[in-house]
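Narrative of activities, Objective 1.

The group set out to show that a structural description can be obtained from nothing but a protein's sequence at a throughput compatible with the screening campaign. Below is one input-output pair from the validation batch, recorded exactly as produced.
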Amino acid sequence: MTDHKPKILFLDIETNGVNGFKADLAFTLCVGYSWIDSDETHCVGLDDFGKAKYKKTPYDDKQLITFIHSLLMKADVLAGHYLKYFDFPFLQTRMAI
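Output recorded for this entry:
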């Protein structure tokens, strides 16, 4: 049996204005994250993906959601403020959309 140190990810998302609580009407603006064993904190937002020609609107968060999904797949444990009741359900809905 090998010792496996869990990969712990601290995560927080920000969503848009009035519809920010409704994942079917809102979009993800940015994600802040840090790994427990790192001194670095990162913030990745919509503007980090440029204005691709195929985007329907400047608020198309598909690339950002794909990036967040890749983070989640690397993590063994997630930690964050209100993660269980808002961030994770919101992200699950955006990923389904």
